[in-house]
């Protein structure tokens, strides 16, 4: 293992270990987008084994997102996410079979939009937590 790869692995481990639930979902979506980009590039090069490998990784991430949804307590949001993840899984597999890079790119854009939403949710949550902990009385003697 190269020193760069080891440092990269350590950085990723630190990001995951210190992440909120929203950030973990955003990280998974970021990874899925990266693998979709690799699949699209492999399609362009007609490197079908590389495409297959990248597609397998993306579908694993989408399955992981689905499995960890709390559909019993998550209400409509969880149900809608479950439907979206299911659709993504089917769309990715069909696009892969049809060698349709445009469909893969569309799913990647949707993942990016959802990733931004999760990142904003995290920012709002920590903003609320910070403001809840702030009291002007603590600053005045």
How would you sum up this structure, described in words?
The chain is mainly alpha-helical. The chain has a single domain (19-133), classed as Up-down Bundle (Four Helix Bundle (Hemerythrin (Met), subunit A)). Helix content is 82%, strand content 0%. It has five helices and no strands. It has helices spanning 3-17, 21-45, 48-67, 75-97, 101-133. α3 (48-67) packs antiparallel against α4 (75-97) and α4 (75-97) packs antiparallel against α5. It is globular, with a radius of gyration of 19 Å. The model is unreliable at 134-141 (pLDDT under 50).
How confident is the prediction overall: mean pLDDT?
A: 86
> CATH class, anyone?
Mainly Alpha
| End-to-end Cα distance | 56 Å
Q: Classify the beta-strand content into a percent band.
A: under 5%
CATH topology heading: Four Helix Bundle (Hemerythrin (Met), subunit A)
* Main sheet properties: none
Short description:
This protein has 141 residues and is an all-alpha fold. The protein has 5 helices and no strands.
List the helices and strands and how they pair.
Elements lengths: L2 H15 L3 H25 L2 H20 L7 H23 L3 H33 L8
Helix pairs in contact: 2-3, 2-5, 3-4, 4-5
